[in-house]
């Protein structure tokens, strides 16, 4: 039943849009301000005289809305990351039945056949400098011991490794460049006399990976490092008992590639026992061509059965995790809002019980019952609005924070990502809308109560 | 005693305010209970145990772990090869399999994550299933015996039974996905796991699974399935203590048998910690932002309610002082009211959550790593009153202080 309620609220919200709903609310409040004749000065004076009660109630709203803002910023960051990963004209080919790169196996023969497809009905693959933009990749998750792990932290971590035949080509297909350094060389290794095995495997790191691996350095190494925050060009790290050297840093902060290490596929495949490909990513001329290519592979291609999908669809499916978090956040927001509603109801009932005589005087002065209702309702909304604005402002302090999480499209699989919390105008609108709804729901019953007081009885 | 009666009467005096305050406390304590229940499970699985714990042997470098099936026998004995080597108390092998009942329509509900095991070990080696209530243990033992007798039998988690709309006794066909493509299984549902931790799991006989590989080779002119002999995912070992674990881990990691692929041996807690590392910031937020914010909100609400109550009863408090009540009595009167409200509604919330979530809903549905559902533990019955009581105590301190400092002369002067 709770799922059904959340789904209904969400669908109604999506249909109307949060800005539309907020707009309706604000217009309604403005209307109330215009038609309500009880002087606002009276309401504000009461709020300021009972400042402790007003402050405590507003603070409760502040906490609820601030929490909601932070939680929504997390989901927002996750959704933006998965949505901005992938090119609309790319087709990502996995093995038939695979839902995740980690569980896909494509043979070199299959990959060669697909990337050389041409003919009637086959949209042409984009070429640059005489080369087809088709990236053969081997994606794997590797276990790495964490040296001198502090107490309470894991002694191992999972590292996302992508083996590429040609990193420039892979970067070109995924539309990712380097923010520093160079792609690794054709050989994929370089001589490092200071390394135990005298050669180091060349690697390009996502910024998130560089930050994470940079934390493994000893305090002395960090002090003398070119970049204390992260690994930089020329820095080395250990993985699978081999020395690896950083040749470049990916410009991938807004994508899931941010947490990956790219290296020569033939080397890493041998080290980790994965000598086949997992993924073939092909660039077509347009999104329409990509769709036609995908359909061709699904319906007409007579070679090995594969699972092609638009690259944007693949990464969008990874946002399944963010949907689950969104449901959880929605549930918590609803529950905490109920708490907030009862809180403001308590305050307003108390305020009205202390101002029964005021209500009687207002009625004798000629104010109508509905104007009494509006007056107290506006007080409740004012408390909610102040608390909500403070909450949005407090929650907005988390904008730009980086956090780690996991995105996954289903059982098994999943990518560990480093993402930024993003507070945007939509989140502010959601926070303000929720606070106004809480203020309205909490203030309505007490205001109706006040409205029903009889003048003479109130003054007795 | 009189004081306690007065406290109870005062709480009843303004039923509306007391009820609203109690409702807010119950709602927010409910959120704290949910969060702490999830954190409790995560903390339990990631805390190193001192004795009788499990170690896991997996492939050293790659995820998913794919060890040679031939490793199973020697690893189950802790790779003991010298006279003074030690062996684990018990062991269990896991071979993962992912399949779907509907290859044409891949959805979360149609995909099953299964484990091929030695059926008898289900009752001795699987966390939580080795200490079931007697009636559940008898039932599970019956299911396990059925799988022993019928290698095509499968024990399903309750989520799968619901999603597949199947009952015990019915058959399912699973079509392998991804690396398991080509390995299709025909299984008969012979039982269901108790509700809770294993709701999204399926367990079947490893002999049937290994035979499926042989059948694949026979059907493909002797060509092995791409997984080949590398379908062993985890070997679980039960060890007596940390010293035994270190010895067995050394035996395994220094053994010349396990080189291609290399293996590693770690405690289960260490393994789970690695898996959950990706969620560390989320867990941190739940522990240090969400739960404390809820508790602080309870504090604010109770402080507000008590503050209003004290302000309304200044005359009454002055009369109590005239009648001989000391400031400390008045202080404890106000704090007592707050504690009764806070702790009482906290307990009601925790107890209600325990019954509703565990028995009514089968647990908190919050997919996190390999956990699908979390149950509210019995400890929640003291969490509720503790959280509500502590918030009430802290929130009522200042209003109670203000109440005990009421000046009789000032109050009566105002009345006059």
**Which pair of chains forms the biggest interface, and how many residues does each contribute?**
A-B, 65 and 64 residues
Instruction: State Rg of chain B.
Output: 29 Å
- Show unreliable segments of chain A: none
Task: Give the overall form of chain B.
Answer: elongated
- Main sheet makeup of chain B: 6 strands, mixed, barrel
Distance between the termini of chain B: 34 Å
DSSP summary, beta strand count of chain B: 12
- Major pleated sheet of chain A: 11 strands, mixed
Runs of chain B in which pLDDT lies below 50 for 5 or more consecutive residues are: none
The class by helix and strand makeup of chain A works out as: alpha+beta
Form type of chain A: elongated
Mean pLDDT of chain B: 89
Broad structural category of chain B: alpha+beta
Strand segment count of chain A: 15
* Number of separate helices of chain B: 14
- Mind telling me the C-alpha Rg of chain A? 30 Å
Distance between the termini of chain A: 48 Å
Strand content range of chain A: 15-25%
Determine the mean pLDDT of chain A. 87
Helix content of chain B: 40-55%
Written account of the structure:
The complex is a heterodimer of chains A (460) and B (416). Chain A has 16 helices and 15 strands. By secondary structure, chain A is α+β, with helices and mostly antiparallel strands. The two termini of chain A are 48 Å apart. With 416 residues, chain B is α+β, with helices and mostly antiparallel strands. Helices cover 53% and strands 18% of the residues of chain B. In chain B, the strands form two sheets. In chain B, strands 3-4-8-5-7-6 form a six-stranded mixed barrel. At the A-B interface, helix 4, strand 4, strand 5, helix 12 and strand 14 of A face helix 2, strand 2, helix 9 and helix 10 of B. Strand 4 of chain A pairs antiparallel with strand 2 of chain B, so a sheet runs across the interface.
